[in-house]
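Rotation project, supervised by the postdoc (A.L.). Task for the rotation student: set up a whole-complex structure prediction and record inputs and outputs verbatim in this book. Inputs entered:
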Amino acid sequence: MQTFATERLEWPATARDLRRRVRELVAAHGVHDPVARANCWARPDPEFSRKLAAEGFIGMIWPKEYGGHERTALERYVVLEELLAMGAPVGAHWIADRQTGSLLLRYGSEEAKRRWVPGMARGEVFACIGLSEPNAGSDLASVKTSARRDGSDWIVTGQKVWTTNAHLAHVMIALVRTESGSERNQGLSQFIIPMDTPGVTVRPIIDLTGGHDFNEVFLEEVRLPASALVGKQGNGWQQVTAELSLERSGPERYLSSMALLVELIRYAETARSPALNELVGRLAAETWTLRLMSASLACKIARGEDPALEATMVKDLGNSFEQAIPELVQAAVDVDSCGPEDLGLVLCYLLQVSPSFSLRGGTREILRGIIARGLGLR
Amino acid sequence: MTEEQRLLADMADNLFGSLGPDACLERDWQAMEDVALPGLLLAEDLGGSGGSWEDALVAFRLAGYHALALPLPEAVIAAGLAGRGRARGTIASGVQGTIRDGTFSGTISGICFGLGADFVVAPCPEGGSMVIEATDLSMVSHRNLAGESRETATAQEARIERLRPDVFALGAFARVAQIAGALDSALARSVTYANERQQFGRALARFQAVQQNLAIFACEAAAANCAAMGAAQALARGAACFEIAAAKLRANRAVGIGAALAHQVHGAIGFTMEYPLHRLTRRLWTWRSEFGNDSRWAGALGAGIVARGADAFWPDLTALTD
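Outputs recorded:
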């Protein structure tokens, strides 16, 4: 039994140059607050998104016809991992770049593609994902937000929750029940909903760190044209499932605590402690392994495969690693979470935000259930 | 895998599978020679196959998968390093002593299946490795945790040939590959057992606690395999000091989680001498510290990273592969 097909990785010849350009761009923009470098893909900075887009670093694998740059998946991967390792504030465009643009390119109407994708590639159009509802978290198939036909329009009513960046997004991709009376994952469709459509209301949800990522989104008789349907009516579940592989397979799934590891190394430089050196070594070994596993997902996706099982495994390993780093640092270093040392400040933030790592994008227990099924256990 | 690697894998899978943990050195070593396996890394002009470290990974991993009770990985490394294809060589993990005028005096420990070997490649106290003839060693034999033969030997002004490569690191690579294979095998056994064994009116596999544990186990086995592959690829490019340290650390961690979960899933039956799980887990446990435990590799890896400084960490990491 070999659950994860290992393969030799060939990095693109352009990698070194791409990394250098990303580092220069981020350095020029300046991310001076070390806490801001942690979990940086949750931090929106529209100005940075536009700068990044101007360099050709958003929509890298999309067709040029829609504003993309037709680069390879591994080139895109190189850019992403550099951005995350440097703690760049990529939160505003992250979702659009990672999945929404690709979703529209694959399933969207021509009108939707032309209207939204070029703007996403310019770092000007941001997206959010309308999936979870108050009664549909891990059990996504129990969504109740529904749409009914009215002439050639659709009228959408319902509520979404935990919608990251709904307060900044220009569009939401919503999973909606279009077949009245349908059960579970039958009769679902995806819609692209401009956030300024009448009937759309966004209310912030503040998390325990005081941060604002999450929102409630209320949809009250929201009227949409036929062109807002993404893909086939009734095919929503299959489309969402394919999107999940994209959502789960990126380097952000293991790099959220990278800023803390870097601060630990910085601290260890003057600490001269064999114990701290050993901790650094162990964390470096995990980082190295996860990078290989994450990169091999990019290779598989580039070949047109859908490594759903492998992506699930890497996400689970990655999330556990991200959560372990703050605990291990706190146990090994006598540092004050009030500061002034950067190590303490970054630790303070990550300790609090870390429970979300194994909740967002697929709760740990659900992921492990998926892996178990992949092993032939259910 | 290349086509050649697939052929190698098929051959090794069948052969190692038929021999497994009941293989006996005296009786079964010839079977290794018959298919020219010990010469896997030996240069072709010296009579070997001229294979790569990725080829070696294929063979070493399968040796671990089948809990092969023969020192094949050791012989392959020894032959490749010493450039000798004639008789069985092996490797050792420990050394204490001095070099003088091209001779070694001191103790060599952790010699893998030293009895009957023709020569030993051991770490050299002054760096790199040294080849030493078995006839110049007086060996005392022990059994390790897994019941395999490990020798300690003393030498008095024994002539040595010095080599640049680090046999300790290459031994660690072998263990990483074997760990990856053994974990896959233990996982497969555990999945089969969970699907077959019934309690409370249904298969163990139907219980979420069991499912979640096996999912964790599968992730660890995957990580160990990816680490092994990463190290093999790195060895093709150079000494791979960083990668071998990282891979051994990752594999060691996977041993702890995987071996424990394998025993948990199997219940008491897995704890018996009769049931073959221990053939894998006792090897896993011994391999976790052979050719470097966590402290050894974490200290070396960490000290190197800290010395380079925080801002070099990520650039250095990516430069390994670019």
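Student's summary: The CA atoms of residues 8 and 240 of chain B lie 24 Å apart.
Supervisor addendum: Strands of chain B lie at 89-91, 94-100, 103-112, 119-123, 129-133, 138-143, 149-163, 198-199, 202-203.
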